[in-house]
Amino acid sequence: MRNESEVAGVALGAWAAVSSMTGSVSSAATEAQCWTTGRKKQVVLRLLRGESVAALSREVAVPIYKLKQWHDRALAGMDAGLNEQEHDPREKQLNEANRRIRELVMALEILCKEWESKRPPAGRRSSR
Predict the structure, then answer these.
(1) Does the global pTM surpass 0.90?
(2) Which range, of 8-12, 29-33, 88-92, averages the lowest pLDDT?
(3) What whole-number distance in Å separates Cα of residue 82 and Cα of residue 79?
(4) What single-letter DSSP state applies at residue 87?
């Protein structure tokens, strides 16, 4: 006896095949497809190149509103990626760490010079 998921999968697959032959696509058939980030990116790139939204919607069997959502999200992502922040918190921490390192190096150099000046010269030995 078949369980409901097997029957639904067969029915959905059959409906997708029939709808692709007739040119109409149901939302259930569209949701059954796995749209990876890479596939979505390829579709959005085609939209950015100027392809017709309606023609692309028919070809890839995705509703126009969904293509527009992908397009808008891609543009928002590009804006966020291109938006340069003038005060990056990591850059501030790095600058502070570099400043502190310079201070410590200078202090070490001063201490080394003082230590060397207080040591007896290497050529002289005690007269015992």
Answers:
(1) no
(2) 8-12
(3) 5
(4) S
